[in-house]
Design goal:
Two copies of one chain form a homodimer.
Chain A (H helix, E strand, L loop, with lengths): L6 H15 L7 H8 L3 H7 L3 H24 L6 H23 L6 H9 L4 H27 L8 H21 L4 H6 L1 H7 L15
Helix pairs in contact in A: 1-2, 1-4, 4-5, 4-7, 5-7, 6-7, 7-8
The first copy, chain A, binds a DNA duplex through helix 3.
Chain lengths: 210, 210
DNA sequence: CTATTATTTGACCGACCGGTCAACTAATTG
DNA sequence: CAATTAGTTGACCGGTCGGTCAAATAATAG
């Protein structure tokens, strides 16, 4: 009953687009509405506040990231260490595409909001932390598998996964700061491998995938 | 001639304090002035814009970071790899202190502004990039020394230094997101060492400092 | 057709934003 | 002393901020 609408979705997508390429604070409700082609009243019909829209946008980012980056890279018919390589490859491709399209390397949506809002908004901080925990879980499974296959020396997969996520966020931050996607390529594969203690050759092509 | 004033310094320090514990956008010129005990007109007597104050604050942060973190940690009578360990130790101490004092882990001033403003303000982006380049240079010298001493396998010190700075920013980001200084301790020493290819023992106590 | 419900509209709110300015005060110089 | 200069004051500017609301509209259910 009543009319139906895609305004909610459009608002969520606009929030993701605009906040990703700039920042939370620099995107006003006004601009959000214009970008989504929606009136201000409709905004507050669907979301009690700008913060709530942001939470929804983060939720959407979780799905989007899973479909476009994580699932393709962490596809189980690749050996585990190559999944992580493929992940960094995709991050590089994404950064390069964004730079080509917008002139800027926008970094990581999650990391961006984490840094901008963690000290100011506990609700958003928790949401962001949850997304990162999820990601860490995925990495943990992957390295655990690599350890089981003896592609990696025996070690605590949970802490290692945290380290890898940290490294990925740091590399992304540097790429954004220098506005240079090449940095991701340069700091990708090799150093993640070293970070894992996987050193020079170990685990490379233990299945003939390269 | 004319009266003298410490308003400029007070404004710079206030900017550093406030923007560090929250964000650039969330700190208004008004609040900045109140915190510094200065009138708005005085603000614009010393700085043409909020952005210029921010640049000055970043410059101050360079000196502050050098004195309180970098110089103590990278003191040359420690072997090079231990300097990097000492660096992460100091970062942990700092985060823990901030958490105790303010309830929040504020992350890294430079990384925070990098993420918040890199896509929006080229001037600030360049300043931030310069500070990170400086830091990378210091790390590069350090790892180059370690390589020369054979504490580290032969490799490109420039790229390795970038990787270490990235890792440090990433760890700091995670600590801020989870509001947990312990994360820095957990992800510190061990994984930096691995990142460098310094693996388990190599280079540890090659001078009897432990 | 009527009642109900979901959505849309756009004017409006007080607060705050970054920035300007002319008048004023205090210290120094000759 | 007067002149010069550096710093201070606080009112003021147009614009934007996040958020509210009452009335209008469109789709469905009975």
């Amino acid at each position: 009953m009543g009319q139906v609408s895609d305004a909610k979705d459009k608002l969520v997508q606009s929030a993701l687009d605009l906040m990703y390429s700039r920042s939370y604070a620099s995107v006003g409700v006004q601009e959000l509405c214009e970008h989504a082609g929606v009136q201000k009243g409709s905004f507050y019909h669907f979301f009690p506040s700008k913060r709530d829209l942001t939470i929804a946008a983060l939720e959407r980012q979780r799905e989007l990231g899973r479909c476009t980056i994580l699932e393709p890279a962490f596809c189980p018919d690749r050996p585990p260490l190559q999944r992580i390589e493929a992940w960094f490859d995709r991050l590089y491709d994404h950064a390069a595409t964004m730079k080509r399209k917008t002139g800027c390397v926008p970094g990581c949506v999650v990391g961006n909001l984490a840094i901008e809002l963690s000290t100011q908004d506990e609700v958003i901080r928790h949401k962001v932390a949850a997304l990162l925990k999820d990601l860490t879980g995925l990495i943990e499974q992957t390295v655990a598998e690599a350890i089981k296959r003896k592609d990696l020396p025996s070690q605590n997969p949970k802490v290692l996964a945290e380290a890898i996520v940290a490294y990925m966020e740091g590399v992304t931050l540097l790429a954004k700061t220098h506005n240079d996607p090449a940095l991701i390529k340069r700091l990708g594969h090799k150093y993640v491998t070293q970070l894992m203690g996987g050193a020079e050759v170990r685990g490379r092509g233990s299945r003939p995938t390269r």
